[in-house]
Amino acid sequence: TSQCGQTVGAALVIDNAKHLKKLVSVDAAAATAVVEPGIVLDHLNAQLKPYGLWFPVDVSTSAQATIGGMTGNNSCGSRSLFYGNMVHNVLGVDALLADGTKAHFGPVGGNLEGLAGPSRFVDLVRRVRDIAAREADEIEARYPKLLRRVGGYNLDSVKPAGAHNLAHLLVGSEGTLAYSTAVHLKLAPLPKHKTLGVVHFPTFYKAMDMTRHIVALGPVAVELVDRTMIELSRSIPAYAGIVKRFLKGEPDAILLVEFAGEDLGIQQRKLKDLVSLMGDLGLPGSVVEIVEADFQKDVWEVRKAGLNIMMSMKGDGKPVSFIEDCAVPLEHLAEYTARLTRVFEAHGTKGTWYAHASVGCLHVRPILNMKADGAKKMRAIAEEAAALVKEYKGAYSGEHGDGLVRSEWISPFFGPRLTGAFEEIKDLFDPAGIMNPGKIVRPSKQDDRSLFRFKPGYAPRMIDAALDWSDWGGFAGAVEMCNNNGHCRKFDAGTMCPSYRVTGEERHLTRGRANTLRLAISGQLGPDALVSDAMYDTMRLCVGCKGCKRECPTGVDMAKMKVEFLHHYKARNGHRPFDRLVGFLPRYAPFASKVGLLLNLRDRIPGLAKLSEWLTGFAAARTLPAWARRPFRADEAVSAGTKGEVALFVDTFNTWFEPENARAALRVLEAAGYKVVVPTADDGDRPLCR
Questions:
Q1: Which end of the chain is more exposed for a tag (fewer CB within 10 A), N or C?
Q2: What are phi and psi of 257, to 5 degrees?
Q3: How far is CA 482 from the centre of its chain?
Q4: Angstrom distance (rounded) from CA 311 to CA 554
Q5: pLDDT tens-digit readout, 270-315
Q6: The model's pTM
Q7: CA atoms 316, 321, 322, 325: torsion sign
Q8: What are phi and psi of 259, to 5 degrees?
Q9: Which residues make Cβ contacts (< 8 Å) with residue 614, sequence separation at least 6?
Q10: Cα separation of 200 and 275, whole Å?
Q11: Nearest 5 degrees, angle CA 20-CA 48-CA 265?
């Protein structure tokens, strides 16, 4: 789920989340754990909770972010002000080098004479330390003096003559140096008590300007939500009620200020201190105080969904990720955001903002049409933003890493000497250049259109749609609402996506299906891809539960898309016996029921199930519903109750296969004193089902 293209490109992509997802061990006394790289953060924390511990790098994508991915990205999270980034919480990494050498990257002393491990690994460590010693003055001069900075390699963590942790060089390396097989983590006690203040501001500038004063109170987190995100949240049913509870009036921005610790009284006093501070700063009554744990959780869910809420905008103009995590010192935050806003305006657009305001890291995304002139504007805005960040001695990559989007900007910020040093390190670890090429070192240009989702000439084919897609500007617009955020990969809550939960395959995921549809309708999979058997196999396991429509932050409705797809596929390929047997069941059920006892032999006589699979397409491994000996009839409703008249609609399945359900409902209604009417088909004795 990286934002900058760390995990895509011309290389093999390994999804660890299917198999390498175990919590290997926990040392509760030492507050440490060893995990496999594919374990998802929320799943890890659920397993740590009985120990009274958690892993506190709480990224907003915690339902799908893996620890291996977070390590490779040097992820941060909302509470990094208190707990730090991944680099501060990773104790060691077990890894495979490009040539297959196994090594443990962890703490080492100043003297490497006793360093254990294969000779290739020991030699690697010595040569990396030599590079760090040679570039010590450049490291001191060039590395930003900020908590939030994740660009390049963490060469500053290597101490040429002192103790240091080798794992910290791998943290943030984005898979370009080694492949992790296990990650050793530092855990933290679960905070017993939290309080939350929602601070309302009349202007965005004021929110940014006052952040530095709020940080002085010692909060765990200070998070920004801007006007755009507030309005979009109000329009999404899942969040509208929550927003209404904590929002006062029409603020231009709000800050979520959290205090946490062992003593509830102390956290409540800190919340009161926040109220007093805002009064002293000229904003009395601007704080909504929240002490209830469930309410706090609901508010944070809205904030965690911030990125996806922003991406729920319909139409071709979308908030685009390319400068969304620049970090500047807090004293410059207000001025930086004001000037960057003017840059957007000069290019005819505006930005959507949310931020880790406590650490000066702003998630800002200009709204651009990447099918039209978006790439040109992106380049211009990026150059001006980079100049601003340099001026304020900030970090161009503050949280989301380098990847395809920002690797180009390493050289302008770190200079030619450190850029060359990074290339040396890459070549030491990976001489053949096979580990995630094109990231961090020797990158492509940020605006290389061949790497874009919407490549030059992208033009989705207009189809004669069977359903109404006007709300999205057409079927293609609905498909393109999938922004690859990966929320459908979650396992621990909700419905989405049931087929993926069984297979663990990206192909059987809402995101996988949406991407395949997009590639098909834009001609990237061939002229007839939309109506191909391969597309049918991709869509086949969608069960139409509509979990995606309810739970996807951008409202992707794959169930409706499957109906549209099937319309076109069947028009080209026709219906199979299986389709006709299911689709016309209400028509032939009255006749088939008369020989139901014979049809039920299909699952009793060996070999018949296999034969029926060959003839009809019904899987032999699946037992079919048994035809009832006595189907339900409409004239079974005979009571003349006095409490009112109730219509009982009985479908085909309950009529012919499980009539006991309909009879039970009938008994309950008649016992309650109602007159029950069963709507019937034309002949007057069968329940109506069409």
A1: C
A2: -115, 115
A3: 11
A4: 6
A5: 999 999 999 999 999 999 999 999 999 999 888 877 766 766 677 8
A6: 0.84
A7: positive
A8: -115, 145
A9: none
A10: 11
A11: 150
